[in-house]
Structure formats: structure tokens, C-alpha cells
Amino acid sequence: MATSTDATAQSTPTSSTKLVVTQVRSTIGAKANQRATLKSLGLRKIRQTVERDDTPQIRGMIHTVRHLVTVEEVGS
């Protein structure tokens, strides 16, 4: 039987790893959900860089826009 702490454990970062995400391509011609994903990541211009925690949610967002961004892992 799963407890309520198991559900919240998945949304917290598993390590101190950070992801540096840089937008490298334009959103012109991209689908609406991809534009919204970039906005949620905090990206709005080409060559803009943001640092995010390495969580499954962020990894999924990056997967959605993987052709528009580059990603580097940075250990903190």
C-alpha cells in the first residue's frame, strides 16, 4: 500500500543536480504546447539560459521541446 509521502517524494529533486537549459531555436512555426512549455521553463529569447532543478517534471518539459533547446547537467 502506497503512503502519501511516496507521492510527494517523486516531485522533489532526487539529488543536487541542476540542469542548464538554453534556447537555441525560434518558436516560430512551433506548436502552441511547445511555446507554452518554453514559457513555463522561463525561456523567451534565443540564447537565453535558465537553471532548473533536475526533476522528472522538468525532464518531461525538456523532452517536449528537445529540438529547440540544449541541456547541460551541472552538479551543485
TrEMBL record:
CDD domains in alphabetical order: Ribosomal_L30
Record PROSITE patterns: RIBOSOMAL_L30
Pfam families: Ribosomal_L30
Superkingdom as given in the UniProt entry: Bacteria
InterPro entries assigned: Ribo_uL30_ferredoxin-like_sf (IPR036919), Ribosomal_uL30_bac-type (IPR005996), Ribosomal_uL30_CS (IPR018038), Ribosomal_uL30_ferredoxin-like (IPR016082)
Matching Gene3D superfamilies: Ribosomal protein L30, ferredoxin-like fold domain (3.30.1390.20)
GO CC terms, sorted: ribosome
Keyword list, A-Z: Ribonucleoprotein, Ribosomal protein
Residues covered by the Large ribosomal subunit protein uL30-like ferredoxin-like fold domain: 20-69
Family named by the database record: Belongs to the universal ribosomal protein uL30 family.
Quaternary state and interactors: Part of the 50S ribosomal subunit.
Name under which the protein is recorded: Large ribosomal subunit protein uL30
Organism: Pseudonocardia alaniniphila
Taxonomy of the source species: Bacteria, Bacillati, Actinomycetota, Actinomycetes, Pseudonocardiales
Gene coding for it: rpmD
